[in-house]
Amino acid sequence: MAPQYIANHNLPLLLERLRRYAELHGPVRGEDGVVRFAAIAPGTLPDLSALRTLLPPKKYLLHPQETILNYTAAAGYQLQAEDVRSLILFGLHPCDLAGINYLDRVFLGDAPDPLYAARRATLTLIGISCTPDEFCSCHILPSPLNALSDLFLCSVDEGLIVTSGSPRGDELLDGVKDLLEEWEGAVPEDSRRFFGHAEAEQVRPEPDATLPEWQEFASHCLGCGACSLCCPTCYCFDVLEFCGLDSCSAERVRQWDNCLFKSHAEVAGGTNFRKERAERFLYRYRHKYRGFGPLQGVPSCVGCGRCRVVCPAGLDLRPLAERLEGRPL
Amino acid sequence: MNRDLPIPAVISAIRPLTVDTSLVTLNTEPHHPVASSFLPGQFLELSLPGAGEFPVSYCGFPSVDGSIELCIRHIGHVTGPLRTAVPGDAAAVRGPFGHGFPLLAYVGQDLLLIAGGLGIAPLRSLLLALLAQRELWGRLTLLYGARETGALLFTDELLELQNRGMVELQLTVDHLEHCFDGPPYCRVALLPVLLDQLDLEPDRTCAAICGPPVVYPLLVSRLRQLGLSDDRIHLSLERRMKCGVGRCGHCAVGTRLCCVDGPVFSLAELAGIEGALG
Ligand SMILES: Cc1cc2nc3c(=O)[nH]c(=O)nc-3n(C[C@H](O)[C@H](O)[C@H](O)COP(=O)(O)OP(=O)(O)OC[C@H]3O[C@@H](n4cnc5c(N)ncnc54)[C@H](O)[C@@H]3O)c2cc1C
Ligand code: SF4
Ligand code: SF4
Ligand code: FES
Predict the structure, then answer these.
(1) Which of B3, B50, B79 is facing A243, going by the closest CB pair?
(2) Confidence of residue B183 (pLDDT cuts 50, 70, 90)
(3) Number of domains chain A contains
(4) What's the rounded Cα separation, in Å, for the pair A235 and A62?
(5) pTM
(6) Contact call for B252 and A239, based on CB within 8 A
(7) What distances in angstroms separate CA A171 from CA A2, A62, A150, A160, A266, one per listed residue?
(8) What's the count of helices (H) and strands (E) in chain B, helices before strands?
């Protein structure tokens, strides 16, 4: 079957149709000029030319702060119940799709995280191809190339080639088939990427902690945590408990945490397992380029470039990573 | 078992052991795995409603009646309020989590247990498990050190075992308080010094260690000098833990997660990881 194609002038119609299935969110430029994932207002188009949103779509799956348990004396602890609404995320770049795929591996493993699983089940992902800039490293990493979505849109002249990646995608395609045409032209060799190559995941020796670069990074880093905040695969959270005013109920809350903060490795009694900023930098490095626990050997960095764009100190881990990982990044 | 949902437990006893440490007994559902099926060295997450949750090692023996023994130091914003809890107070538990000491690999071996400070909690659990099947193992030696005699825990119980010839016990304290004699067999020396006069057969000895991170490097180098290979040395590591199930990102040691891959690691597993021992 020839590839399916939707002409650019039919895009507004496509969005209106999708809206019948679920609430529609995508990259939207606010009045402040910042591009965020937000509801696409009826009659408006998402900003498909923007290369990256300020925050990645992880905010839909892990809220910056959220209640995970409620306690009452009568019922004990109960899992937080949430009305999850169906949501279509439209216009996700391959790096952000890969970010969600990575979070899925952490939060949907053998014992799925209840809140994450509930939200993820109602999320439809519609990806779109893009052209990397100098901050990106997606085109060299394997994960964006292999990222899964329900539908994927690949830009070609005057429109988008549409492919389905799931039964949900098939269903959506079927519902909009009158808007689709057969694409007669050439199909880009890889529908996600205009260039780049994939490499197999592998376990590498421990990074050398004595390299002067760790100190060098540490001496410039301000410890602001912006790089983790905007990273699609930084999912660290802290957990707090708040006692109700009646003192027989309580709420347990988790909130985004940050491995560059000093408190991240502090335990009761005052011992800190990563006192020095250089140690915290190495920690971040390991997670981004090596992966933790069951995902050892699976780098979590998906190459979106956000950390490099937001860093007030202009720090870029790529040159060091290229040396330690033995490949271009 | 839902690993995210703490199940109700009741505090059935709190026995102060020292000024800042108590032996807490909890009761939860009979036959629940959180009480009945754990390996020494594994941990559970204990919730005190309204205060929060923290990871704590099993200190006792698995039970089918739902009882759990924990040895807890009251030093933080959750463990602190626990000091004033009374029998009947509500708590909640989830677990067991992590990997404990490799009992299967210990069969037929001489065992050298080394505890520093509160590290006695998981090692008491290990000792109880070993004694329950005494015939499976060779020599059992416990080296146990604390800052001062007042901080040594379970001494009555341990001396009793020593007197009955169940375990070779050596106690030590960093320094003696003015008005105390130490308990019998107690020396004044740093924990690693106890290894100096130990005669052991390195090819049939396994060491199980839990203590404050400061003692680890010295203990490890002495054990290596004695001829123990790195895969015969197991250590329990502490890290900040906020979930216990591999999601909160706080507890990585190198690229391993302390809560899932540990907290008990063999020294061989930690090779080359800067800062692993603390
Ligand atoms: C595998 C494992 C086994 C353990 N076994 C035992 C054991 O058998 N017995 C035992 O006593 N301990 C054990 N511990 C240590 C025990 O978990 C800690 O002592 C406990 O977490 C302290 O909890 P807390 O909430 O009372 O302390 P916290 O007050 O939480 O102190 C922890 C850190 O959190 C910070 N903090 C302080 N207040 C707050 C706040 N309001 N919100 C957020 N952070 C705050 C502090 O800076 C402090 O450094 C074990 C730990 C691990 C990882
Ligand atoms: S480390 Fe930087 S480039 Fe990599 S995924 Fe995170 S924010 Fe994007
Ligand atoms: S954004 Fe830059 S300055 Fe801020 S914590 Fe990250 S590396 Fe440090
Ligand atoms: S305690 Fe949360 S990842 Fe280990």
Answers:
(1) B50
(2) low
(3) 2
(4) 8
(5) 0.91
(6) no
(7) 18, 27, 10, 18, 49
(8) 6, 15
